[in-house]
Amino acid sequence: MNVGMRVRGGLFAALIVCAMPVAATLAAMLVASSAVAQNVASIQVEGNRRVEVETIRSYFKPGPGGRLDKAQIDDGLKALIETGLFQDVKISQSGGHLLVTVVENPVIGRVAFEGNKKVKDEQLSAEIQSKPRGTLSRPMVQSDAQRIAEIYRHSGRYDVRVDPEIIEQPNNRVDLVFTITEGAKTGVKSVDFVGNNAYSSYRLKDVIKTHEWNLLSFLGGGDVYDPDRVEADRDLIRRFYLKHGFADVQVVAALTEYDPERKGFLVTFKIEEGQQYRVASVNFVSSIPTLDANGLRGFSRVSVGALYNAEALEKSVEEMQIEASRRGYAFAIVHPRGDRNFENHTVSITYAIDEGPRTYIERINVRGNTRTRDYVIRREFDISEGDAYNRALVDRAERRLKNLDFFKTVKITTEPGSSSDRVVLVVDLEEKSTGDFSVSGGYSTTDGALAEVSISERNFLGRGLFAKASVTYGQYARGYSLSFVEPYLLDYRVALGLDLFQRQQLPNSYISYGTSTLGFSPRLGFALREDLSLQVRYSIYQQKLSLPSYLANCNNSTSNNSLLAFNPSPAFANANGIDLSSTGGLGCYVDGEASLPVRKELAGGSTLTSSVGYSLSYNTLDNNKNPTDGLLVDFKQDFAGVGGDVSYLKSAIDAKYYTPLVADIVGLIHVQSGILNKVGSNELRMLDHFQMGPNLVRGFAPNGIGPRDINPFGTRDAIGGTKYWGASMELQMPFWFLPKEVGLKGAVYADAGGLYDYQGPTTWAFTNEVTTPANSNCAKPSLPGAIPVSAGTCTGLIYDNGNTVRTSVGVGLIWTSPFGPLRFDYAIPITKGPFDRVQEFKFGGGTSF
């Protein structure tokens, strides 16, 4: 045992003795290597074709004494690799020299895309980094493939596959081809909400932009899964709750899960509503001695006793801060504070006004606008370089830019300026298409079949101008229109609009005559507040009436005592209720005759109307297309008589109030009224009178109510009235058993209204017409409500003045369809005039496709 140990010990000692010279040799080699690295006198380059030698040498930066150490050589090697110009870089040392051997990356000859049908080549080329005549970088190619896949995923195609292929070409050049397998769209199969007690899932689906798949989804895009849209929906839900008093609301998560069986995503929003608060008090405090906080009280949109509304609070802060700036306190900041009372579910609002930091705007940098001119963006700011930094004005500018609808995204951020009291505003934009070409079609019981072709541009020439041209051709309506809007006239926030139009309305079952109108109308629009706007306008148009010849061929002559004999056929007599035993002297009505005001308008030829007017609009609707809450009031007046052939003053008001009730039922109260006043000595034309029907009381035909020619042998035209009023109450409710995305809801309503007081012509002193009831051979109708009460006339006007109050009740079907808004109504008149025309069913709608 001891012998063995001694043998092993001897061997170990021998190995140590032998190893010592080897170790010494290795150490000497390392020292020599280090020494060589420290004494590199020159750098040699091999393998380069396009990149200059001096460019490669510049990446190796020697230290003091002009020598390179090992760390500097490593840094140079890494820097060369990071340039992306080389496939391979090798470094070796020989005889005091550093040898850099490179293999250059090839040059890209062309970049091509194959298999892409849903996304254009131009869009993909703009998104990738690999460019023709650039250097090929394989890591960059992989990054480009991922970017292309991301573009498709944002359009809902999660099955996309992108395979890059590099095709070798002579002279160290390559072609880069991305082969794309687009796959089918990945839709949203369900949208659910968890934790929502105050509002139903049906109601919350109105708030968000993500929608569930349905049979008509191919006409829209809201059912395509987009993670950015889902994340934006979280904020929309939160703001909706904050607007309705839920100050503690949290949208905890938006959970998305792909279901392989349903081949789509399941989206679930988890909500913690909290309590609903009302405003207990509104107070104002100011730390600025010379600024009276109570002087800003009129700019608060929050009132005591109302539901807490974060949106109204934000707008109040903005308007108060802007007003303080106008009063000379450019750096004043309004901080809203809400003190909650959890037991009473109230919140006390305090506006604290403090002196903010004295910060100025050094620059406003705009990025991402490739088409839109800079000044179009900058004019949405109420501040400019050198002004005091005011966050409220910056937020307002961001909101205005978003409302332009020129950009996909708008974001304004701040960066430090050249000093501590300077900031740089950075406006990041992503532009989108602003042109629209549409072919529209529709049908209504009033206008019949109708088609329209239009082309419009919201950002014409990148200057923020609006231009539109359209042509309409229908069964009863035809025409064209040209519109142009300059939103900033002479750099003021005043919109100038110009409209040129030509319209032709043909005779139909509701009116016996046709009209042709050619006109021009310039207008100016002013935004007085976000919810209040004013428009002033001037209109000049020429109008001409037309009639079929057989409705304007009355040829009775006062010089003929016997007058023309009236010999209608039995069929015509039976159809018009004519007693053949007493028809002498009614030659004007042998084939029917238009009303006196119509024929008088026809004989007068074309008429020129020149008028000035204005419209005042107040709008607090939560959604202009599908409102559920808010008030919309329009008041307008037009004065005709600024030249032209007619003169009048026409006034009208229309108000709609929407309010949510229970179980997603929305209540609507609609009131309207108008009056036409005679101005000067010119008599009012029939065409200037108001004409009403289902637009006032549903259940009646167009031009179906109001004063009417009641001559039993004429066309019984509606002649209109100078005064009208209407009131309607409606309940709109969803069909809970149908998917929300179908867009169907029902309505029940009751209407009441009236149109009366005709003040147009009733007689006509014309050579070939009998205009007085003196001729005993003419019929003497005794009709209820007739004016005159018992007249004998062949061609004079016998009319009912329409003093009856019309009422109706009905049901409606409202469809927010992919083809546009459609509405079907069935109404039954309860009270009506003796000569009214009833139309119980009405349908209307149309869209672009």
CA distance, first residue to last residue: 102 Å
Shape by Cα distribution: elongated
Classification by helices and strands: alpha+beta
Number of helices: 12
How do the strands line up in the largest sheet? 16-17-18-19-20-21-22-23-24-25-26-28-29-32-33-34
Major β-sheet profile? 16 strands, antiparallel, barrel
**Could you tell me the mean pLDDT?**
81
- Work out the radius of gyration: 40 Å
Question: Helix coverage percent of residues?
Answer: 10-25%
Query: Spans with pLDDT under 50 lasting ≥5 residues?
Result: 1-41, 555-576, 578-587, 766-782, 789-795
How many strand segments?
A: 34
- Beta-sheet strand percentage? 35-45%
Please give a structural write-up.
The protein has 849 residues and is α+β, with helices and mostly antiparallel strands. Helices cover 18% and strands 39% of the residues. The strands form seven sheets. Strands 16-17-18-19-20-21-22-23-24-25-26-28-29-32-33-34 form a 16-stranded antiparallel β-barrel. A three-stranded mixed beta sheet has the order 1-3-2. Strand 17 and strand 18 form a beta hairpin.
Write a brief structural summary.
With 849 residues, the chain is of the alpha+beta class. Helix 8 (310-326) packs across helix 10. The protein starts with a helix and ends with a strand.
Strand and helix map with partners:
Elements: H1 2-38, E1 42-46, H2 53-57, H3 70-82, E2 86-94, E3 97-104, E4 107-114, H4 121-127, H5 138-154, E5 161-169, E6 173-181, E7 187-194, H6 201-204, H7 227-243, E8 250-259, E9 264-272, E10 278-286, H8 310-326, E11 332-341, E12 346-355, E13 360-367, H9 374-378, H10 391-403, E14 407-416, E15 422-431, E16 435-444, E17 448-460, E18 465-474, E19 477-486, E20 494-505, E21 514-529, E22 532-546, H11 570-576, H12 596-603, E23 607-619, E24 630-640, E25 648-660, E26 666-678, E27 708-709, E28 723-734, E29 744-756, E30 786-787, E31 799-800, E32 806-817, E33 820-831, E34 841-848
Parallel strand pairs: 1-3, 4-6, 7-9, 10-12, 13-15
Antiparallel strand pairs: 2-3, 5-6, 8-9, 11-12, 14-15, 16-17, 16-34, 17-18, 18-19, 19-20, 20-21, 21-22, 22-23, 23-24, 24-25, 25-26, 26-28, 27-31, 28-29, 29-32, 30-31, 32-33, 33-34
